């Protein structure tokens, strides 16, 4: 079957890259011919560039530019792209929408873009959704009529979190299975780097100074190193200009992770890392389902609890049993949607 996915595939964001990659590669592993629709709203392009380059720090500006080039080269090398204006002229049979926050129409970087809700391609192409999220859109919010009309054309819908499931149920009257994020669907190649084995990695866009200081003090007492990856954290070594594979190599090699990011949690689980979550209200809806399903409530920390929580270890023997069941369940659901 010829399939095209519609997602955030070319953002300068490690989670966005790997969820797009793993979904496409899993579909390929089933024997399908898979492309990624090369669509990116103009508002997202301009806002993303502002985020990267709106700084007076020349050093950070250079690092972000290198990061951009590495992402562009990696995406060009590894993604089979299909121009959006060619979609109607091809023999694509199925469009798979997801994952990520493609349905968060309140995201100021994008706004409401009906392409991500299915207004693309032809009426003859089957449309299914795998693990999209409404992000910060609350479940009691009524969807715009044009969104409801667009989603009504989908043959099958699954979502990534219970908040999104409730929104679909309330507005469309449909039940939607909750499935795992695509990064779990397919193996991510990695190289174990010995130099990071005693390193605590911070993956976050910003943390309170007191919180970071306590992590540094904990690490110093145990001869561990502390680094930030992907984003700058004042006061500690920050490695920003990483390609998607370089990011994964460090993540898979480190001793422990402290993150506020959704995919920071997903990568920690995938690579069986000890990790802690600094709660970010923006990501509350996205994280709630995986936290509840895998009983990760004790992973949340703040300035007052981080020192006590850092030594506490997750039991991956029990956790992996439930996670692997969810992954298998999700893979089977995706196969079922494609076949029906």
Structure in words:
It is a single chain. This protein has 340 residues and is α/β, with parallel strands linked by helices. The chain has eleven helices and 13 strands. Strand 12 (274-278), helix 9 and strand 13 (300-301) form a beta-alpha-beta unit. The model has no long low-confidence stretch (mean pLDDT 95).
Q: What descriptors fit this protein?
A:
single chain; 340 residues; alpha/beta; Rossmann fold; 2 domains; seven-stranded parallel beta sheet; six-stranded parallel beta sheet; 11 helices; 13 strands; 15% strand
Briefly characterize the structure:
By secondary structure, the chain is an alpha/beta fold.
The CATH topology name of the largest domain reads Rossmann fold
- The proportion of strand residues reads 15-25%
**Uncertain ranges:** none
Sheet/helix structural class: alpha/beta
CATH architecture of the largest domain: 3-Layer(aba) Sandwich
Biggest sheet layout? 7 strands, parallel
Number of strands: 13
Sheet with most strands: strand arrangement? 3-2-1-4-5-6-7
Q: What count of domains describes the coordinates?
A: 2
Radius of gyration: 20 Å
CATH class designation of the largest domain: Alpha Beta
As a percent range, the share of helical residues equals 40-55%
